[in-house]
Amino acid sequence: MFARGIGMRARRIGFTLIELLVVIAIIAILIALLLPAVQQAREAARRTQCKNNLKQLGLAYHNYESTYKALPAAIYLNLQSATIANSLWAWGTMMLPYVDQAPLFNSLNTSNKQPHDIGRNAATRSLLQTPLAAFICPTDLEPGLNRNRPYIQTADPAFPLFEMGKSNYTCNNGDAGDTGICMSPNNNTLLRDVTDGLSNTFFVGERRSLKDPRQLPTTSQVTAPWAAVWASTENDGTGIRNVWAVASKTEYKIQTGEGGTGDPEPGQAFSSQHVGGVQFLMGDGAVRFISDNINGGWKTDPKGTYNYLGDRADGKALGEF
């Protein structure tokens, strides 16, 4: 063995600056490639959860129909009191016993009380503000309360304005008014009325909270989809019952709310924050992802497949969609 000579330096092992920069560049490229894949995986999981929510609502619809021999109306008008006629229970409230929310339904006491009664009382107001996972699409960016649709009661100046629990699911009111499966007020659809077939008729679809960047400029009062609420239709501030807080129509194009004439009405249209389309619950319990590019969706001719899916009894033959 030879001893290391005096004055000889030990060789250092490590990366040169160029090698370090190459490694960093490679890592950055891998991260850039990985992040979209992670985001897509997360969105796929959120979309699956949204699909499961709609499937649960499908079971709830059929269980409700088995109990009452009719589908729920969009809204339920209190005919006994003109002073709170704009305070209406919605179809989502009627679904509560069938989506594992029977205690909440019992607390609301819909047989004897109106949302007006619950909202006026500070001790019970939180019942209307309960965020329910069954009514929320995980992809939607808004929180559990719908800040865009506050409960307003103009008939009572002392009534407190407050936000209600958000819903991303609206029932299908039809291609034109009341040609779908949720009519209003108080009018119930029977399954035998769906003569186009349950597999060819929308029951429930999505609505997003925020404005779609593809939406055209508008001067309409309804400038954004604004999602929905599950508990009760709010008074819109002019004394008019706003059924579009809980229902949508197919006579306005999917996502953008264009109708062929006038300003778009995204607040009455189906929409979602999923890329490429909207998920719908069909009458047979299936959940279908409907592309943004589906034919139809105009208030005026030409109508197409999308319009026919919104009508329960138009007699139009449908192929694949």
Describe the structure.
The protein has one domain. It has six helices and eleven strands. It has a five-stranded mixed sheet with strand order 9-5-6-10-11. A three-stranded antiparallel sheet has the order 1-2-8. Strand 10 and strand 11 form a beta hairpin. The longest helix has 52 residues. The termini are far apart.
What's the N-to-C terminus distance? Answer: 83 Å
The total count of strands amounts to 11
Alpha-beta content class: alpha+beta
Apparent shape: globular
Low-confidence parts lasting 5 or more residues at pLDDT below 50? 82-86, 236-240
Q: Which H/E pattern describes the elements?
A: HEEHHHHEEEEEEEEEH
Q: C-alpha Rg, in Å?
A: 26 Å
Number of helices: 6
Order of neighbouring strands in the sheet with most strands:
9-5-6-10-11
Oligomer: single chain
Give the biggest sheet: 5 strands, mixed
Supply the number of structural domains: 1
Mean pLDDT: 84
Helix content: 10-25%
> Which band does the percent of strand residues land in?
5-15%
Topology:
Elements: H1 17-68, E1 75-76, E2 88-90, H2 91-95, H3 102-108, H4 115-120, H5 125-128, E3 145-151, E4 162-167, E5 169-174, E6 202-206, E7 228-229, E8 232-233, E9 247-249, E10 277-282, E11 287-291, H6 305-310
